[in-house]
Design brief:
Layout lengths: L5 E2 L1 H8 L3 H8 L3 H8 L7 H11 L3 H4 E2 L6 H6 L4
Length: about 80
């Protein structure tokens, strides 16, 4: 069984005002796939993770990780949870 891949996809989508449908069309998947990834119900393939990162012009590790992400407030403002 594969390890869960954590992601910040929904936060980045919301910040950039990109719908699931628009992202899905841009990377060539069904919009429900984006929802499954965001909820941690599906781990993206390396190809898909790289396409999503390229779409947002971010490094893939800014969006996906094998370790849970710290809250953005902790990273931006140095606050620990």
């Amino acid at each position: 069984m594969s390890e869960q891949v954590h992601n910040r996809l929904s936060a980045v989508r919301a910040e950039r005002k990109v719908s699931r449908q628009a992202l899905a069309e841009a990377v060539g998947v069904h919009y429900q796939t984006i929802g499954y990834i965001e909820r941690g119900q599906y781990n993206p393939s390396l190809d898909l993770a790289l396409k999503v990162a390229a779409y947002f012009e971010l490094p893939v590790e800014a969006l996906f990780s094998l370790e849970p992400f710290q809250p953005l407030s902790a990273e931006v403002y140095g606050r620990k949870q």
